[in-house]
Structures are given as C-alpha cells and as structure tokens.
C-alpha cells in the first residue's frame, strides 16, 4: 500500500515494483527500477527516506528515521536482505546488507561494502568503503576483493530480474 501522510505522498516511478503487502508511507522517494517486497515497511512519517535506483528492499524489512534528526538514505544498486532494520542511517551505493541485520541512527555504510547476515551496526558507526563487517556488535573483518564486488552486483541484478517478472505478472 502506498499512502500519504500529513499531505506528503510517496514518489514511486512506474519502473518500480512495490508489492501490494508492502507499506510505503509519507516522505519516501524511490529511484528508477527500485523494488520493495512483501511486508516491507518504508515509513517516511518522521523523516525522509530515499531509496536509490536499482536497489531492492526485501521481505519484512523496516526503514524508519528519527524525528528531526536522521533520515534513511539508500544508494544505487543496494540489496537490503530479508528482515533488515535500517533506522536513521546512510547506505552508500553498491552495498549488500545481509538478512536480519540492524543498522542504527547516524551509521554510514561506505560504498561497495557487505554487512553480513545478522550483524548489528551501532549508532554513528562509520563503515569504510569496500569492507566486510559481521557480528553483534559488528566489527571489521576484511577488505573486499573484486569477486566480492561482483557478487554484490549479482544480487542487485537478480532482483532487477525478479522485479521485471513481477511487473509482467501484475499486468496480465
């Protein structure tokens, strides 16, 4: 469901896929070819949320900001895995946020990084570009190589294919 809040309506280009069970509320802007999957909540009621082009927000994820302080900003070609919580944080381009991860207010995930499944990134943590972090709390494990970078884009591209298939199914 896409709905306005306090007179602000989400911006969802025609190239996007938003599942009917997802909730997109208020000050939310999706980039071209973005997708928001089953039961995800993107709640732009207390601060803005921006999701970049070709990015995907998978099933049961929650994106929310902190009133008057932190919005949520997701770059281009980002994969946000199942049941992720992004709260008042920045995810730069070409990142993979693993299933069940939690990224808190003021955190910044540098471009081309992987946050492993189940990782907790505490408030105001800065993840350097091209890094692998894992654990609770998350800790730096290693720099990513070219193979890792290719896998990040492979996940994003898989979801672009799924998006097209679901849009085609919807138009039948």
Summed up:
With 172 residues, this protein is mostly beta strands. It has a single domain (2-170), classed as UDP N-Acetylglucosamine Acyltransferase, domain 1. Helix content is 15%, strand content 37%.
Structure commentary:
With 172 residues, the protein is mainly beta. It has one domain: UDP N-Acetylglucosamine Acyltransferase, domain 1, CATH 2.160.10. It contains one helix and 19 strands. It has one helix at 146-170, and strands spanning 2-3, 17-18, 23-30, 35-36, 41-51, 56-57, 62-64, 72-74, 79-80, 85-87, 90-91, 96-97, 102-103, 108-109, 114-115, 120-121, 126-127, 131-135, 138-143. The strands form two sheets. Strands 1, 3, 5, 7, 8, 10, 11, 13, 14, 16 and 17 form an eleven-stranded parallel β-sheet that branches. An eight-stranded mixed β-sheet has the order 2-4-6-9-12-15-18-19. The radius of gyration is 15 Å and the shape is globular. The two termini are 20 Å apart.
What features would you highlight for this structure?
mainly beta, 15% helix, 172 residues, 1 helix, 8-stranded mixed β-sheet, UDP N-Acetylglucosamine Acyltransferase, domain 1
State the major sheet: 11 strands, parallel
Poorly predicted parts: none
Shape: globular
Span between N and C termini?
Answer: 20 Å
**How many individual β-strands?**
19
């Amino acid at each position: 469901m896409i709905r306005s809040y306090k007179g602000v309506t989400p911006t969802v280009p025609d190239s996007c896929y938003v599942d009917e069970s997802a909730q997109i509320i208020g000050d939310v802007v999706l980039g071209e070819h973005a997708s928001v999957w089953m039961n995800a909540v993107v709640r732009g009621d207390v601060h803005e949320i921006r999701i970049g082009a070709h990015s995907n927000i998978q099933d049961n994820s929650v994106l929310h900001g902190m009133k008057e302080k932190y919005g949520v900003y997701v770059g281009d070609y980002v994969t946000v895995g199942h049941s992720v919580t992004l709260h008042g944080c920045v995810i730069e381009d070409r990142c993979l946020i693993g299933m069940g991860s939690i990224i808190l207010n003021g955190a910044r995930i540098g471009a081309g990084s992987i946050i492993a499944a189940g990782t907790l990134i505490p408030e105001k943590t800065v993840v350097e570009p091209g890094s692998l972090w894992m654990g609770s709390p998350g800790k730096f494990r290693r720099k990513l190589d070219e193979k890792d970078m290719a896998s990040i884009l492979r996940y994003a591209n898989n979801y672009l294919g799924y998006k097209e298939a679901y849009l085609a199914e919807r138009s039948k």
